[in-house]
Design goal:
Low-confidence stretches: none
Largest sheet: 2 strands, antiparallel
CATH architecture: Orthogonal Bundle
Shape: globular
Structural class: mainly alpha
Mean pLDDT: 88
Distance between the termini: 15 Å
Number of domains: 1
Oligomer: single chain
Amino acid sequence: MRILRLLTGAWSWLFLLFILIFFEVWSHVTYGRTFFGNIFNAQSILLAATQILMMALGLTFIIISAGIDLSIGFIAGLSAVTMAVVIRALDPHLAPGWSFLAGISAAVLISLIPGFINGWMIAKLKVPSFIGTLGMFGIARGAAFLIADGATVSIRNPVAREFGNGRVIFDLVPIPVLIAIIVTLTFHYLLSSTKFGLYVYAMGGNYASAVRAGVNTTRLTIIIFMISAFTASLMGLFYTGRFSAGAGDAGEPILLNAVAAVFIGGASLTGGSGTIIGTVIGSLIIAVIQFGLVFINVPPFWQFVAVGLVIIIAVLIDQSRDRLTGMSGQEEGA
């Protein structure tokens, strides 16, 4: 029983190791060269994982608290088009660096608004998070396309382009990956080593008990939804910088992957469990699957099938882990 609990708890790490070995062996047998040892492949996988991770980081807090945020896909798009529109408007009048700073500041600030409204609706008006954020999904979507006038907003700002495509540390680490590492470490500390993180777990584990213990659940809910909006906005910033264009639907294809990354990383459907490190592993698993399938010439539509299967596996393992925990508790009681 103890071994089974250990395996179900570490399955995401084992699965990541398995798919890395699989694609590495395939590459050596088929092409006679390394898969993950290739710098271009590694950078591409890390950039893809960063896009997913940025949306999944804030979502981890919400799922641990037994909620969900469906609006982050278009909050990311709102951030992307706001950054592009502001930079495009200011570039003729300001130096590229100043227009870039104005663009990212405006994008983050406008993205925090739907995050605050989500948290306020759920905490104060008791709107279920699924329904409330689904409504904000539509509002943010419409706002993003209105700001962009229904089109993709292109920019020609060298600072933004460097922000999205530049590399540091011997020209090996993409700037978005470095920023993602810093943000991830910060949120890992916040969730695992502070009272704030403890309160998030408490609220997801037993909401009524958290209230009786004196946790300000209203303020906590608003903060975690603003955190979710903030990390989604970072994904939008990376998108605009990388492609020198902002699109209202920039984050829509990433939404499912972000939700999947959190659950693959060990978060429970019922709240009260999950880690930032687990979300990182989940993001890497999805990125490796996506890039690896393209690498071995599998049609791209199979990516959706593969990710869907991994989600189902994650849910089944989560349920098995709960049953094993319950059986262990009964044995100890006996």
